[in-house]
Amino acid sequence: VGWGYTRQVQAARMPPKRKAATRPAKRNVRTKAIDGASVSSEPAVWTVARLGAKSKQQRKAEHGDRSRQTKTLCGRLALRREGVVGEASVNPNFLGRLLGMTHRVKDYNSYRSRGHAGRFEAGTNDRAVMVTSMAAYDELRSAIGAEHAPLIEDGDLGENILLRGPSATASERAGDGRLAVGSWLRIGSSVLEVTEANNPCYRFNTQPWAAAAKERWGSGSPDGPEKWFRNLKCPLNNEHFPGVRGWLCRVVEEGEVAVGDAAGLLPDD
């Protein structure tokens, strides 16, 4: 069989190229080219440092609303418009990872599932994925003090995707090389749109470092010590430091992401 015939067969088996995703016209903003587009040069390229998901069953086993927000460590996530599905080790020890024994973890968020009157509908796709930066953890550890900083572990803010590279706080507008509401983000083979800077949650009080946070910021909180994260000096105060708690996103283009994958902002056309 000739080389020309082999190339024809290979070409016939190749999946068709996907069209570049565009924003819905009703949003009245510019479209972004996706396939083949280079990420913006500022910042250059970010990387995926950690992935996580937590199932409804696991959340229930950990006492529901009293459970920690830290999600199960995953090696890979499938990002779907309706939410996240993770691939986690059956046994997270060395042998389990070596043998590659994994199980499927469908991420569950009770608040998103119930909805919030006047804010968002139950099950909204605009809150399908949560993204946080390593810089946010650096800010929180620095603010809480050296004695308690080691208690804060990556994943404690409840994110699905932890990125190394983005700044901790929001930019004032989309398009300046930093995360902001309206930014489009390529992660792995998927594309996300940032829809909201996430708010802190009372479930932070279940974290091992909560007592230290309450001691440092509780007395200055306008809503009382239990909501220490409302203190104006606390990095998790979303009104003064939007983005430190992370970003909620909708999935524009479904795909997969693995630890170590590149990520970056998509430029405006």
Please explain how this structure is put together.
The chain has 269 residues and is of the alpha+beta class. It contains six helices and twelve strands. The protein has helices at 3-13, 56-61, 94-99, 110-114, 134-144, 210-217; strands spanning 46-53, 72-74, 76-80, 83-89, 102-106, 129-133, 161-164, 184-187, 190-197, 247-253, 255-258, 262-265. The strands form two sheets. It has a seven-stranded mixed β-barrel. Strands 5-4-3-11 form a four-stranded antiparallel sheet, with no helix packed on it. The termini are far apart.
**SSE string, helices as H and strands as E:** HEHEEEHEHEHEEEHEEE
How do the strands of the widest beta sheet line up side by side? 1-7-6-10-9-8-12
**Uncertain residue segments:** 1-19, 23-44
Strand content: 15-25%
What's the total number of strands?
12
Distance between the termini: 45 Å
Backbone shape: globular
Please bin the fraction of helical residues: 10-25%
- How many DSSP helices? 6
Mind summarizing the main beta sheet? 7 strands, mixed, barrel
Query: Compute the gyration radius: what is it?
Result: 20 Å
**Structural class by sheet pairing and helices:** alpha+beta
- The averaged pLDDT comes out at 80
Record keyword descriptors for this entry:
269 residues; 17% helix; 24% strand; four-stranded antiparallel β-sheet; alpha+beta; disordered N terminus; 6 helices; globular; seven-stranded mixed beta barrel
